[in-house]
Amino acid sequence: MSTTENEPVDHDGAGGEAPEEVAVAARVRVTLDDGSTREGEVVDDFADLAGDTTIETRIDDEHTARLRRWAISTDDHDIVFADDDAVEVISAQL
Prior knowledge:
Elements: E1 27-31, E2 37-45, H1 47-50, E3 56-58, E4 64-66, E5 70-74, E6 79-82, E7 87-89
Antiparallel strand pairs: 1-2, 1-7, 2-5, 3-4, 5-6
């Protein structure tokens, strides 16, 4: 691919296309609450349940759980849950 002086150069290999939206079956990178990242595939979207309000439930005196929008099956065979701001679409290259 040749470029002229004024053309932007695509360094990420995406072919100049905008990244796909997060959706079921998308390959994603998720940033967990502890700052670590995991990669995997979105397996469910709970937007109809999550809505715009925060829904939490108390598990015991020390733990609460909060409903998250996305369920992601990670490459190391875990399931993690995350909100929109913690998920980014990545290419399918491994």
